[in-house]
Amino acid sequence: MKKIVENLISDPNQCQIQNVDHNSNNNPNYDLIYQFDYIEKFFPDKKVCMFDIETTGLNAQCSFTYIIGINIKVNGIWQIIQLFNDDGESEPEIIREFQSIIKDYDVLVEFNGDRFDIPYIEKRMAFIEQKYHIRLTDNFDKIRNFDLMKIIRPYKFALGLPNIKQKTIEKYFGINRIDKYNGGELINIYLDYLTSGNERHKAMVLRHNRDDMEGMILLGPILAIEGLVDGRYQISDIKITRRNGNNPINNIFLEIILDLEFPLASEIDTSGYECKLWAKNNKAILTVPIKIDTLRYYYSECQRDGFEEKEGFFVSSLKDKMDKLPTYKECARKKECYYLLDDNFLGNKEFIMQYSIAIISQILQYKGR
Predict the structure, then answer these.
(1) Is the terminal CB of the chain with fewer CB neighbours within 10 Å at N or C?
(2) DSSP 3-state assignment of 309?
(3) What CA–CA distances, in Å, run from 241 to 232, 238, 245, 287, 354?
(4) Which of 101, 97, 93, 112 is nearest to 164 (CA)?
(5) Shortest CA distance to 37 belongs to which of 233, 218, 265?
(6) How many CA atoms lie within 13 A of 40 on its CB side?
(7) CA separation (Å) from 231 to 83, 239, 249, 306?
(8) For 189-226, b where at least 16 C-beta lie within 10 A, e where not — what string?
(9) Cα–Cα distance for residue pair 86/2, rounded to 1 Å
(10) Distance between CA 232 and CA 204 in Å, rounded?
């Protein structure tokens, strides 16, 4: 086993991951990406590490692990550790070393690790113990797993992502890595290294994994999107606005202006359920259409129990109806519910906060249906 320890290069011009377009408004400068390292802020008072593996196949029964990459912070600087199976026989050693490292951490950040990396390592551990009678300690159940792919998957449509591969998401945040080979292509290069000792091939597989580990650090903006969905912001203003249109009654909107805790790396401009979300840097505006109508508040689900009518401004409750305020309908049969924009709504900051979280979550998970 070879253990390679290296600090993340602090000079972005020396790094293998480079900016796509320094002049594009959609792509932040590479050196600014370091401002979006939100790991410590997102997990306060927690020790966090990241990991990614390289394997000779997808089936753990007939392949093995040849690199485990780990990111940890040492004195405030990200350090990349690569555990390299340099002889084809060191898999038990690199797994044991990896498990020894993570036992001291609280959160394990990965990308598609819940579905592949973690199950793969666990299957290989079981195989190694059964075949070679080598005892390996499994520390996965002692650490919280946090899969970045699972976090961003629900927002794929709203963000306009063609897929949720790591390189695709990096490009969305303005990062273009220099990497000529994918993991599958590197398997033969690694196997050739085992037989030939070709140092160039060794450098190629280690470089690919290191780029994956650098890229994982630079996926910090995913946490900013998740922070927006989680309500990690302050409401700075609430107002009713009018838009130009043929019918002014149908062009009145509730605007909720937000100050974000985690500034975004890329602008968000999306809509769903007739609502709109725009966000850039540390600002966001949530726009909800207002319905001017006379609606009914039903005393129960049974129409015969009676109702009362209210005329005024209403906003949709969408799917996540909250019971803290009464909801109104056009008639008992209708599923659509609305909140009345009165003092009970506009004067309740806690309710508006919960309402904005629910609306933003639904907009970002909207799939166009």
Answers:
(1) C
(2) strand
(3) 25, 10, 13, 9, 21
(4) 112
(5) 218
(6) 10
(7) 38, 19, 31, 37
(8) bbeebbeeeeeebbebbbbbbbbbbbbbbbbbbbbbbb
(9) 6
(10) 40
For position 111, what pLDDT does the model report? 96
Q: What is the dihedral of CA 111, 155, 167, 84, to 10 degrees?
A: 0
53 token code pair: 């593996």
**What is the Cα–Cα distance from 355 to 220, expressed in whole angstroms?**
26
Tokens of 57: 């196949």
Burial of 295 (0-12, 13-18, 19+ CB in 10 A): buried
Pairing relationship of beta strands 252-260 and 275-280 according to DSSP bridges? unpaired
pLDDT digits (tens, 9 = 90+) for 87-127: 999 999 999 999 999 999 999 999 999 999 999 999 999 99
Which one, of 144, 46, 133, lies nearest residue 92 by Cα? 133
- CA distance linking residue 18 with residue 14, whole number of Å: 9
Spatial separation of the C-alpha atoms in residues 135 and 99, rounded to whole Å: 12
Tokens read off for 103: 């036992």
pLDDT digits (tens, 9 = 90+) for 190-222: 999 999 999 999 999 999 998 888 888 888 889
DSSP conformation class of 113: I
The rounded distance, in Å, linking the Cα atoms of 300 and 306 is: 8
Pair 11, 71: CB distance under 8 Å: no
Length of the chain equals 369
What is the rounded distance in angstroms from the CA atom of residue 263 to the CA atom of residue 142? 31
Given the structure tokens 């079981």, which residue do they identify?
Answer: 126
The H or E element spanning position 96 is: helix 91-102
Give this prediction's pTM: 0.87
